[in-house]
Amino acid sequence: MFKRSIIIIDEIQNLDALKSAAQKSVDFQLLLATHDVMAARNCIVDHKPNLILINPYLPGLNGFDFIKRVMNYAPTSVVALYSSAVVTEAMSTQTIAAGAIGAVARSDFKSGRLFDDIFKGIKNVLHSAERPSQAPVSVPSHGGSGHPNQAFPLIAIASSTGGTEALKELLPHLPLGLPPILIVQHMLPSFTRAFAENLSKISAFTVKHATDGERIDANTAYLCPGNFHMEVKRTGSLLHIKLQSEPPMHNVRPAADYLFHSIAKLSAAASIGVVLTGMGRDGADGLLAMKKSGSYNIAQDERSCVVFGMPKAAIDKGAIQSILSLHDIAGAIVARSRRIRGD
């Protein structure tokens, strides 16, 4: 059984309990538990852990800058561990903005079950580029009535590490009047609803936390909830969202590939696929399927990415028509949408 490697960085008085809990975990292999930032840094460089659990307020450490440096030089999954009673929305926002996948409060967990509880909600979003999923990737099947060759214009966006900030930069520059937008961001289930609400506040259109069976409407963006795959289903002339609990793809759920493959089967000829900053290769296969069905696909360029993994995988796969800086992607989406409409 594959165990994901973990480094813990916390105050010295907490380390024994954390170390004991980690060593009892069947899912994780403890590499180091330390209060020494330099020791942690060296271990990260030498061993490239799958997960870092860090107290961002460790004395003598600017934890958020540390997370950003990790993302720049040795990107991996990071979870912030707070000593406060609860993790506030402000804490969550600051943590995710730094590049972490989420935050947890120490007081939320009962003694003896600390690691079981901490990782219950995040196992599906932790992934390792060195160990891709060995399970065969299934492509969602689609039924329903309707016109098989009818094009349904959609904009589908995938992002992971660094994606929360990229989406906050991209979406406010998109106007009303575009096709519906579907977004897969690798994120903890407990944060996706609040993130959708935050995006909605800064966007011209409504950004919703997608629900199963929901009709897909114009002037609306749909963010996939954590721990579900999202696909597009057609019923007659209408499109709906279907949330699935099938196994992770590329060790992640939600997976952008799941969404992209579903779009390739019914509406890609009038659609736009976008892959933003992120670690791993999720989205590459689905974007290629979309391209073969007629979509126009855009990848964020390396210079503006926090992590170039996902865009590079799609580019190397031959799935991309345009490679653009984050600043230029909104304009390209608008121009392509107008061309599709014949404006």
CATH topology of the largest domain: Rossmann fold
Helix content: 25-40%
Task: Quickly count the domains.
Answer: 2
- Average predicted local confidence, pLDDT: 83
Strand order of the largest sheet: 8-9-7-6-12-13-14
The count of β-strands is 14
Distance between the termini: 55 Å
Q: State the shape.
A: elongated
| Percent strand | 15-25%
Report the sheet with the most strands, covering strand number, pairing sense and barrel closure: 7 strands, parallel
CATH class of the largest domain: Alpha Beta
Note the total helix count.
11
CATH structural architecture of the largest domain? 3-Layer(aba) Sandwich
The sequence of SSEs as H and E is EHEHEHEHEHEHEHEEEEHEHEHEH
Task: Tell me the Rg in angstroms.
Answer: 20 Å
Class from secondary-structure proportions: alpha/beta
Structure description:
With about 350 residues, this protein is of the alpha/beta class. The protein has 2 domains: about 5-120, Rossmann fold; about 155-340, Methylesterase CheB, C-terminal domain (Rossmann fold). Helix content is about 35%, strand content about 20%. The protein contains 11 helices and 14 strands. It has helices spanning about 10-25, 35-45, 65-75, 90-100, 115-120, 165-170, 190-200, 255-265, 285-290, 310-315, 325-340; strands at about 5-10, 30-35, 50-55, 75-80, 100-105, 155-160, 180-185, 205-210, 220-225, 230-235, 240-245, 270-275, 295-300, 320-325. The strands form 3 sheets. Strands 8-9-7-6-12-13-14 form a 7-stranded parallel beta sheet, with helices on both faces. Strands 2-1-3-4-5 form a 5-stranded parallel beta sheet, sandwiched between helices. A two-stranded antiparallel sheet has the order 10-11. Helix 6 (about 165-170) links the parallel strand 6 and strand 7. Helix 8 runs parallel beside helix 9. The longest helix is centred in the C-terminal third of the chain and has 16 residues, at about 325-340. It is elongated. It starts with a strand and ends with a helix. The relative contact order is 0.11.
